[in-house]
Structures are given as C-alpha cells and as structure tokens.
Amino acid sequence: MLKIIKHSLREYKTPAIMTMILVIIEGILECMIPFTIAQLITGVRAGDMATIQSYGLRLILLALFSLLTGAGAGFASADAVTGLSRNLRKDMFAKIQTFSFENIDKFSTPSIVTRLTTDVMNVQQSFMMIIRMVMRAPVMILFATIMALRISSEISMLFLGLIPIVAICLFGIVRLVMPIFRKAFHKYDDLNASIEEDVEGIRVVKAYVHEDLEIQKFEKASANLRNDFTKAERILAWNMPILQLCIYSVITIVLYLGSMTIIESQGLKLNVGGISSIVTYGMQILMSLNILSMVFTMISMSMESAERIEEILDEEPRIKDPKDPVFTVENGSIDFENVYFAYGPNSADVLKDINLHIAEGETIGIVGGTGSSKTTLISLISRLYDVTAGRVRVGGRDVREYDLAALRDAVSVVLQKNVLFSGTIKDNMRWGNKNATDEEIVEACKLAQADEFISTFPKGYDTYIEQGGTNVSGGQKQRLCIARALLKKPKVLILDDSTSAVDTYTDALIRKAFREYLPQTTKIIIAQRISSVQDCDRIIVMHNGEINGIGNHEELLKSNDIYREVYESQQRKAVEE
C-alpha cells in the first residue's frame, strides 16, 4: 500500500507531511495538560490568585494551541487524502485506457469499477488514519507514559504492565478479522456484477417478467457479503469490552493505591493531583492502543484494496506501440498472411490459417454462422487483439509497426454492440472527428440515413442522447454510429453487423452512400442478411474460424453450400412473410 501511496501522492506530499507534524504537536500538547492540572491542584496555596491565574493562562494557551494544531491537521489531511484519491483514480483510469481487450477481459468490467470506487475509498480512509491516528497514538502513548512516570513511577508501572496485555488482545482480534475482510472484499465484484447486469438488461428482465429472479440473485450476493462482514464485526465487538475492562480495572487499582498512599502516607509521594493525572494518562494510553487496533483493522481491509489497485497499475498492456512507430497509413489494402489466433495461451485457436488479400477501395462482405469468428477476424485489423501466429498488414505494413492511434484513426470500426455516450448528437458525432463542422456532421448523417429522423426531433442535432443511447431506437442508434464512423473519412471502414436493425431499403441506401462517398476506402461489411452483402465485390464465407469460400454472390451460389443454404433459407422466409 505504501508503494501506491508514494506513487500517487505527488503534489500532495506537503499537506501530508504538515498533517503528521501538526498531529505530533497536538499529541504533545494534550499530554502536557493533565500534568499542568496536577501542578495546579497540588502546587497552589489557598488564596494565591496570581499562581492560579498563571496556571489558568497556561492551560488556556495549551488548549488553544492544541485546538489550532488539531484544526490545521484536519485541513491539511483533507487536502492530502482527497488529493491522493483523485490521483489514484486518475492513474488507474489513465492506465485502463491503455488496456487492450485482452486486459479488460482479464479483470472484467464490474471488478474494474469496484477498484476505481470502493477500493480507492478504502485506501483513502486508511491513508487518513495513517497520517493522523497512526502518528498520534504512538506519540500519546510515549509522552503519557513519560509524564505518568514523572508523577509516580511505582503506580505508573501498572499501566506499563497492562499495555502488552491489551495490545496482545486487541491485535489478536485484528488477526482474526483480517482473513474475513479479505474474503468478503472479493464478493464486492460479484455484487457489482449483479447490479451492472440487471441495470443494463432491465428491458429484457421486464420483458420476461424476471424481476423476482433478479431480486433473489441480488439478495444472495448481498447476503453473502453481509454474512462475512457480520462475522468480522462480531469479533471486532470484543475490542471495546476488553479495553473498558482494562481501563476500569487499572483506574480502580490506581484509585485504591493512591487513596491508601494519601491516607497512610506510605512515602510514594502521590497526592490528589497526581492521582487525577495518572488516571488521565492511563486513559490516554489505553485509548491510544484501541485506536491503533482499529487503524490496523482498517489497514488490513485496505491492504486487499491496495493490492487490487496495484494489479491495475502494474498491469502491462498486451498491445503497445513499437519503439519506432509508423504514423502514416498509406492506403486501405489489407493482407492476412498465415494468421492464427487464440484468446489465451491455453485456449484453442479460433482463427486458423487465414490467408486473404483485400485491395484498396474494395468492398468485402463477410458471412457465417454464430461462432465462426467473423468479429475476431476484423478485430485484428485495427489491432484490438494481436495475432497468435502469422501477420496482418494494412497499407503494406504489419499492423504491429504502426502507432496505435494512427492505425485506429485510419481504420474506422462500427462494432456489433453500438454505443452512444451521454451528450448531444453533435457531441457524439465529433467522436469521429473532433473538429467536424456542423455541415460535415449533417452530411455524414445524411449518408447514414440518420438526418431524416434527427430532423423530427425538436432540438435537431442538439438533441441530448441519454447514457447508452436509451432514448433512441436500435436502428437510429446504428445509423448514428455509422455517421460517426464516416466522419473519420477512414482508409478502412468496418461494419460489424451494424445495419441489422434497419430495413433492407435503408440498408441499400447506406451501402450506396459508401460507394459514392468513400470510393477509395476499403469497406468490410459483416452481416447476417445476404441482401446486405450480395452486391459486394467479394464475399467471404467463414466457418469454424476458417475461410470456407470466397467469391461474388453468383459464384458462391454455385460453389459454396453454406452460402447457398443461408441464401435460400432467407429467400423462403421472405416469401412466407
């Protein structure tokens, strides 16, 4: 945990150091107050108002300086703690942006969200305790012990004898709860996964009337988390009874011995003021031990959080820029040369011996059944994944030679899952080209057949899109995503089943726009409908991760059984409808 704190504290080191200094001063001042009170009680003669006023002024100044240093420590720690959490989230989010799909798959989205929120909050709380309580408690124990020894070394030994007993009990409790907290914390991911899945799929949940089932699933995840925390809290509940037993036992003994000393004059040189001060110092010592035990409990929880955060920060992106990257993609030609791909070292190949040449400006259709690896194939072009063997070339160069930003700017992909972000339509369009003019946005939307429905909105292109595009239909979302891709004017345009929610007439208009607006752009269209690809220059038929056939529509109808079967099935369905 100290490693990530040191890394992310940066510009907030000064307030963190100031907090620790002020907390130490505050602890020393608090330890001086009981000693001064003892002197006031025992060292003032009746009617000696000058001495009383002197001690009174000294107490007021001690209390005032203690208050000021405490307030200063509070302000400084707030700055340091919130700054640390800000930098931690910033560092993690920046690192996540460098991740490839493979890195994201390794952690899972719910786990990443938990690390950015709950885990950072736990580290923040622990850091606050470290710079305040962990600095304060040892100072209080040390100085309270010294001051108590100055008053009466014999009776003060009672506290010194109890310190290890209390410490063993309290820290033993901490050791018991640490494994439970570690176990419980991993269950946050399951809980977040349940929430995310339910919220994203709320329409499906309601359509199938599965609200009760989802509630049961959530309650199960929540109950598992609750059971672990309840078990931990029941163990922690012993902290206070043990502490109180020790405190009141010591106070009783001190008062008894002190009273006997005063009454019987046994030569221990202890008076009423001394007894009062020793009791106060005893309370300070034992309460400081309790604070330390609670701090270590929190730190034990946050250690797990810190490790999870460190996993993100230490994760190396599987896909990186080369040392001397190429920043210009000359053209949209694409070559697959003996390409194999698997999603992991222990996984089977999902692409096998792919050899394919696509010329610049060519329009290619890709069809195949579910699981035939169509999407995986096109993911290699923009280097969302790297090949396991072989190579993919774009513009005559291996994609691994390019600067990632330059390559992905040249290859525009409309993925199978269309995503719009909260903001206006114009804001979403400028994801494709941040400098696009209003006229260019309108032109792109017209080509994507989106202008027609945008014009019906009261605010037109300034219409606000809700998060995830929930206030537009599936077909409208697809056309907006296509328009956004067109604004990039890419060398390669890939549509991954991106017109499935539009009618065949609109689909045909979109493909016509591609031919006329982007004649030099290489276009790859993945589709389930044969009508969406039948006018392509060539069509690739995928089956079990391999190329089963290549040709135009007429050629494949004659030579490829899979293509012909899909086409005839869709034709029969169209006639029946």
Q: Report the C-alpha radius of gyration, rounded.
A: 35 Å
Strand content: 5-15%
What general form does the structure show? Answer: elongated
Oligomer: single chain
- Mean pLDDT, as a whole number? 83
Let me know the largest β-sheet. 6 strands, mixed
Provide the spatial order of strands within the biggest beta sheet.
6-9-10-3-11-12
Number of strands: 12
Counting helices, strands and paired strands, the structural category is alpha/beta
Question: Would you write up a description of this structure?
Answer:
The protein has 577 residues and is of the alpha/beta class. It is 64% helix and 10% strand. It has 19 helices and twelve strands. It has helices spanning 2-9, 13-42, 49-97, 101-107, 109-151, 153-200, 202-207, 211-236, 239-264, 272-314, 374-379, 404-410, 425-429, 438-447, 451-454, 474-486, 504-517, 553-559, 561-576; strands at 334-341, 351-358, 363-368, 389-394, 397-398, 411-414, 423-424, 464-465, 492-496, 522-526, 538-543, 546-551. It has a six-stranded mixed beta sheet. The chain has a four-stranded antiparallel beta sheet with strand order 2-1-4-5, with no helix packed on it. Helix 17 (504-517) links the parallel strand 9 (492-496) and strand 10 (522-526). Helix 5 runs antiparallel to helix 6. The model has no long low-confidence stretch (mean pLDDT 83).
